[in-house]
Design a protein that fits this description.
CATH class: Alpha Beta
CATH topology: Alpha-Beta Plaits
CATH superfamily: 7,8-Dihydro-6-hydroxymethylpterin-pyrophosphokinase HPPK
CATH architecture: 2-Layer Sandwich
Largest sheet: 6 strands, antiparallel
Order of helices and strands: EHEEEHEEEHHE
Helix content: 25-40%
Structural class: alpha+beta
Radius of gyration: 18 Å
Number of domains: 1
């Protein structure tokens, strides 16, 4: 049997493994929240190295009746691709008890969402970056402003500080919660 001379498919160039990208991830939980958020922080440190954490905030559940959520934003540098980071975040969600088949608007043991992946802008099935909710959800934008106020949003083209200063916070009560994640300390799993 002779081989046909079909050209190989053209693939995008591989990601430069030396290119470092700053990633910001929103973390939220309303099921055993303190334990799960600390576990997620510990696992992010194990997976990505040095991680900066915003203060954590308690706020009402959005989209359904349920326990309040506690949320924070984590920032770290990585040479991994966006898909590799997503895989790692989903692994961490699983360690915290998240099942992928739960309804969208339901209690969450852990929800980890990439808000910004450097200045990457992407719109494909299952992934839109920057995350559109970032500009509408105070529990994402506020904590991001705490740790990355000077970062310029890739599509809004304004700093996170300016976007947060303009945000209507009156209808969104957020109360600071101490999870012991500040000052660059290593977080224990418990």
């Amino acid at each position: 049997m002779s081989r046909s001379s079909v050209p190989a498919p053209t693939l995008p160039p591989p990601r430069d493994r030396h290119l470092v990208t700053r990633v910001f991830v929103a973390a939220g939980s309303n099921v055993d929240a303190v334990r799960n958020l600390r576990l997620a922080a510990h696992e992010m440190q194990r997976a990505f190295g040095k991680v900066d954490f915003s203060p954590a905030y308690r706020n009402a559940a959005v989209g359904f009746e349920g326990e309040d959520f506690i949320n924070y934003v984590a920032g770290f540098d990585t040479t991994r691709s966006v898909d590799e980071v997503i895989d790692e975040l989903q692994r961490i969600e699983g360690l915290c008890g998240r099942t992928r088949d739960a309804p969208k608007w339901a209690p969450r043991s852990m929800d980890l969402d990439i808000l910004l992946f450097g200045d990457l802008v992407i719109d494909r099935p299952g992934l839109v970056l920057p995350r559109p909710d970032l500009l509408r959800r105070p529990y994402m934008l506020g904590p991001l402003a705490d740790i990355a106020s000077a970062i310029v949003h890739p599509t809004a083209r304004e700093s996170i500080a300016v976007l947060w200063a303009r945000f209507d916070r009156a209808a969104h009560v957020m109360t600071r919660v101490d999870l012991g994640l500040a000052d660059g300390e290593t977080v224990g799993a418990g």
